[in-house]
Amino acid sequence: MIHSASPVFKTILRNICFLFAVMCLPGNRSVANNESVRFAEKANLALRRTAHHLLIANGDTLSAIPPVKQLDANTFSIRMEHVLDYAKLPGLLQESLKMQDITSGYNVAVLDCDKGELRLGYNFLELKQKDGVACQKRKNEGQCYQLQVSFIPQKQEANSGGQNWFMLSLGGALAGLGLVAWNKSRHRKITEPTQEALISPKLEFSKSYLDIQNQTLVSGNIVQQLTFRETKLLGLFARHTNQVLERDMILKSVWEDEGVTVGRSIDVFVSRLRKMLANDPHVKITAIHGVGYKMEVHS
Question: DNA-binding residues per UniProt (predicted)?
Answer without folding.
Answer: 200-297
